[in-house]
Every structure is written in C-alpha cells, then in structure tokens.
C-alpha cells in the first residue's frame, strides 16, 4: 500500500525487554522513511557511564553529582545518513556492543527508575518528535513520552523466546554467556520495569497489543501495515 507522504504521525512501540521492539521499529521507520528513536539505547548509555564512573561500587552515590556529570558528558545527535540517533559519552561515540553487554543489561533498570534521569531523557525524546514522522520504541512511550501518538503498539512474547533472543544477541560477543543467567536477568528486569514508581512499563489504554512469540518480522510488519491504513491516508 502507498502512504500519504504529507501526513506524518508518531508511532509508539512499547513492550518488555527483548520483545523485538527495536527490530520492528527500525523496519517500520525504513518502510515509512521516518526517523527512528531507540530510547532504550539512551538509558543503556547512561548505565554505561555509571559503570565507568564506578558509582555502583559505592553506597554513597550522590545523584546530584552524577546528574551534573551526565549533563556534561552525555550527548544525543541525529545522524541524517542512517536516520537514527548517535550517542556520545565525553564526545566519543558509544558502540552498540558496549551498551548491549550483560553488565549494562543488569544495571540499566536501576538507572531507568531514577526520576531525574527519566526527566532529562524524556525532554530529549520529545524534542525529536516535534515534527512527527518518527517511530519511537521504549517502555513508556505511549503512556508518558508521547501519550498523544497516533498509533501505539505494545509488544509481548514468552519469557523463553525473549531469553533466547537475548542469549543469541549476547553470544555474538560473549561465548561464555549462560542461557539461564540471561533468563534470570530478564525476569528481574521485568519486575523492575513494571513496579518502578516513575513511568512504569504498562500497556497504554489505546495501545494495540501484539504477541510475537510465534511471529516473524514479516508477519509483524503486515499487522502494522493494516493498522496504518487508517492512520496515514
């Protein structure tokens, strides 16, 4: 089907960790020629910064000092060539392999529950969506960041499938990874995401839920195409 190039919307994709949000969001953005915003990568980059600063090794973590450091060192820039964001710490490009490590995965939920950090990142994310024409994935996009987005998707899949996806992803750079450890970490992260007080992971009232446990990306895109018929015409 052909889309109306003159009508731009915000497409919000929320869901559990390793439910395939980024894969789906990136594919949709390419199809629509929209911008793609990976908000999870932002939180992961800040978790990486915290690890580098050894803040998790101290019981006397000063959040104000860390926020000051964050504002000085963390940058988000738009890369027009790939139509996605690039993240920088101390002016150095953050590598995807760095923020996808098991160490970062274990700490990112702790970072994501801090209100001051969420406030900073939510502001940045909203600025990218001012002109619409963007696909955004995360955990609170449809409920908090872009509550008025024209189309909201909530992705879910079984813990076994999500664990295997994550295991396969980590295994590319870490042969010593253990599946049961990955599954345990995902379960813990689900609990943290759902129960945090500030912008918890939950399905927006008007979001379309898609269980992709047995779906491949082509079938997911077909579902999205049908949903877009009445949104971009």
Characteristic terms for this protein:
five-stranded parallel beta sheet; Rossmann fold; globular
Number of domains: 1
Secondary-structure element pattern, one letter each: EHEHHEEEHHHEHEHHEH
Shape: globular
CATH structural fold name:
Rossmann fold
How far apart the termini lie comes to 10 Å
Query: What is the top-level CATH class?
Result: Alpha Beta
Strand order of the largest sheet: 2-6-1-7-8
Structural class estimated from helices and strands: alpha/beta
Strand content: 15-25%
Mean pLDDT: 91
Could you explain the architecture of this structure?
- This protein has helices at residues 21-32, 39-52, 63-73, 96-99, 102-112, 115-128, 141-145, 159-171, 179-195, 217-228, and strands spanning 10-15, 35-38, 74-79, 84-89, 92-93, 134-138, 151-156, 208-211.
- It is α/β, with parallel strands linked by helices.
- The chain has one domain: Rossmann fold (3-Layer(aba) Sandwich).
- The strands form 2 sheets. Strands 2-6-1-7-8 form a 5-stranded parallel sheet. Strands 3-4-5 form a 3-stranded antiparallel sheet.
- Strand 4 (84-89) and strand 5 (92-93) form a beta hairpin.
- The protein is globular and about 55 Å long.
